[in-house]
Amino acid sequence: MTSLSVLADPAATEAFGARLATLARPGDVITLAGPLGAGKTSIARGLLSALGLAGEAPSPSFAIVQPYAPPEVSVPVLHVDLYRIDDPAEIEELGLDEALADSLLIIEWPERAPGMWPDALALSLTIEPDGSRALTAEVPAPWKARWRQI
């Protein structure tokens, strides 16, 4: 199932992330694709804020994996940025498969690991001429009932 939405501004992008937080749970993977500045990290920040994170979540661009755990957030989350990954084999060293058992994974730049998360909620953002963001969601079977609540 494919869904398309328009996010008018950065506040709407973060608000979408907050709505997503009400549906996401440990064991889920959410991938965020799109060009630099499209709003991937804004969605992640909205989601993390809604899960209880106080303050602004840093982009994990340099750390690659930014972990969050209770009581900082209500469920364990790994915010992952694959932008600096050159070889998909490097991803195995991150231990994401093991963490998936009890954590929510938010993966930015998933195109660096094609086919790695086939059941992920795959979100893609594009920057529109008016500055808004077009959000396309590829909704896998495990998300279909939840997605209707967005």
From TrEMBL:
Source organism: Sphingomonas oligophenolica
Origin superkingdom: Bacteria
Parts forming coiled coils: none
Protein name: tRNA threonylcarbamoyladenosine biosynthesis protein TsaE
Underlying gene: tsaE
NCBIfam families per record: T6A_YjeE (TIGR00150)
Keywords of the record: ATP-binding, Cytoplasm, Magnesium, Metal-binding, Nucleotide-binding, tRNA processing
Places the protein is found: Cytoplasm
Protein family per UniProt: Belongs to the TsaE family.
